[in-house]
Automatic annotation (TrEMBL):
Residue span(s) of domain Transposase IS110-like N-terminal: 11-170
Descriptive protein name: Transposase
PANTHER family, per the entry: PUTATIVE TRANSPOSASE FOR IS117-RELATED, TRANSPOSASE FOR INSERTION SEQUENCE ELEMENT IS1111A
InterPro entries, alphabetized: Transp_IS110-like_N, Transpos_IS110, Transposase_20
Biological source species: Streptomyces umbrinus
Span of domain Transposase IS116/IS110/IS902 C-terminal: 282-365
Length: 415
């Protein structure tokens, strides 16, 4: 049954790798249609046909409101380009919403599509539409996230390597501590000598050659330290067990070397895309922000000028602003734990670096600590303040100014 002129169509889109389960509702919550559409051009064409059938050929695209559990990919970008209102909804929000229907925890694609349609119909004011970011901002987001994901993957692989070495070759952890075991030269030495017996036979010349190839300073002294550590006596394991551990450690080491290469290559791309963005100069004017941190913050905030109505809205999205919980006579202020972890990590790094780069940030941090606020909460408050300052700079298209940014807190302190 076609919807009347001026009315909305509410769409739930539960996506998978190769298909989308769709439910179409009217404003009264009546289900008008349900369909499973293929991914890609064919699926989008069928979606347009489905909406035209129930909304009429003259359907205003802005009257189509869609809920989907992602904000990325060509499907979402095509929906936005079509003029539809698209809301990216956190899967945890969908799970909580479905508890209204029952407490069994049952899961189905059709059920999720129904819940998504209900959410954009009932709770649309509480949801966040997918930002209309520029192509440049989207490009920054793609490479910045890929770069950070690879760094996280390297950290996980290193932890596995470290755990393996502790079980059969702890001397290697001591030997390469000064080089950092994630560095390519340390990993090459480990691959060259992956067992305690072979490690003890490494000559100083062999070690120095690897360090020289990677342009290490003070390599003679470092080589002597490494050789001494590798020759320290340690408890041994049966030869077949040692060989198995060595094969595992070598595999991890080679994987980290490959990740090092790709992380370095992506870093070049992150900087290039970020510096090409018109907001880059404003971000770089902020204390504690360089190219990589700036790219990550820009990637997660986006550059849609209408996305954040106020500094408070940007802080809430960042997760830096506190949450007040009041019940009866109890009232507590706590950190937000449901937040964008990539953005939170970047802002934490910025706040830490800003303590040295900005006297105002340092004074503000010390003021919080003087109130017996813990290290992390105080740093989070600095980050929260910096987010507000960034919002003002972006809104007015001005660079950061130390005196202006902290004038209120400085005057308060002076008084």
């Amino acid at each position: 049954m076609p919807c009347k002129e001026g009315k909305l169509l509410l769409i739930g889109d539960d996506w998978a790798e190769d298909h989308h389960d769709i439910e179409v509702q009217d404003e009264a919550g009546r289900k008008l249609a349900a369909a499973r559409l293929p991914e890609g051009v064919q699926g989008i064409a069928k979606l347009h046909e489905l909406l035209a059938k129930h909304g009429g050929r003259d359907l205003d695209p802005a009257a189509v409101v869609m809920g989907i559990e992602t904000d990325r990919g060509s499907w979402v970008q095509t929906l936005i380009a079509s003029g539809y209102q698209v809301y990216a909804i956190n899967p945890r929000q969908v799970a909580r919403f479905k508890e209204r229907y029952g407490t069994s925890g049952a899961k189905s694609d059709k059920g999720d599509a129904h819940a998504l349609a209900d959410m954009v119909r009932i709770d649309r004011d509480q949801l966040r539409p997918v930002a209309g970011d520029s192509e440049q901002a989207q490009a920054v987001k793609v490479v910045a996230r890929a770069h950070q994901t690879m760094i996280w993957e390297r950290t996980r692989t290193f932890q596995r390597l470290r755990s393996t070495l502790r079980e059969y070759f702890p001397a290697a952890l001591s030997a390469y501590a000064d080089l950092e075991l994630t560095s390519t030269d340390a990993l090459e030495l480990l691959i060259k000598a992956p067992t305690p017996a072979v490690g003890a036979k490494l000559t100083r010349t062999q070690i120095t050659a690897v360090l020289a190839r990677h342009r290490r300073r003070h390599r003679d002294a470092k080589a002597a330290t490494i050789q001494t550590a590798l020759r320290e006596p340690q408890l041994g394991l049966p030869e077949p067990v040692t060989a198995a551990y060595a094969a595992t450690a070598t595999a991890h080491a080679r994987l980290i070397i490959a990740l090092n290469e790709q992380i370095a290559a992506l870093e070049v791309q992150v900087k290039a895309h970020f510096l090409a963005h018109p907001d880059a100069e404003i971000y770089l004017s902020m204390p504690g922000i360089a190219e990589i941190t700036g790219a990550r913050v820009l990637a997660e905030f986006g550059d849609d000028p209408s996305r954040y109505a106020s500094a408070k809205a940007r802080k809430n999205y960042a997760g830096t602003s506190p949450v007040t919980r009041a019940s009866g006579k109890s009232r507590t202020v706590q950190a937000r734990y449901v937040r964008n972890n990539r953005l939170a990590d970047a802002l934490q790094r910025q706040a830490f670096a800003a303590l040295r780069a900005s006297p105002g940030a340092r004074h503000y941090y010390d003021k919080q600590r003087a109130r017996e606020t813990g290290y992390n909460p105080a740093l989070r408050q600095v980050g929260n303040r910096l987010v507000g300052i960034l919002h003002g700079c972006l809104k007015t298209r001005t660079h950061y100014d130390e005196a202006t940014a902290w004038s209120h807190h400085t005057h308060t302190h002076a008084a």
